[in-house]
Amino acid sequence: MIELIKERYRGFPDAVISEIFYKRYLSVAGFDEGVVEVYLRAENIDGDYEIVKLIFSDIISFRFIEIENSSNLVLNGIFLEKDGNVITCDFFPLIYNYGVVENKDSDFMIKCKSLNFEISDHYSNGSKFV
Known about the structure:
- This protein has one helix at residues 2-9; strands at 16-26, 32-43, 49-64, 79-83, 86-90, 94-96, 99-101, 108-123.
- It has a 6-stranded antiparallel sheet with strand order 1-2-3-8-5-4, covered by helices on one side.
- The model has no long low-confidence stretch (mean pLDDT 89).
- It has one domain.
- By secondary structure, it is mainly beta.
- It contains 1 helix and 8 strands, in the order H-E-E-E-E-E-E-E-E.
- This is Immunity protein 50.
């Protein structure tokens, strides 16, 4: 799934976060579980824009810092990587000529064990959602 997301959205350059939902609940099996849903307006590989819902589950850590008079919604790119069974998604990574790396001091980072995505809306360049 991670490779599909990376290929389809090429690291989410110039994406905009529109919504963030955090849910914590006790599962039927008695486990404390968390889910984070992040909605992004992002350009896909075809040059069309989509509203993408990233669904993070089996949350290990969730960090979001909002600073007054600062935008935490416009992205330059996302660091997305799986190491063993841990998926790291850093929405404000360090960006270098050779690529992006995890920013340990990022304002928005999620570590989890499962990641899926859904496309909510789609529109072509110059047109409204279709």
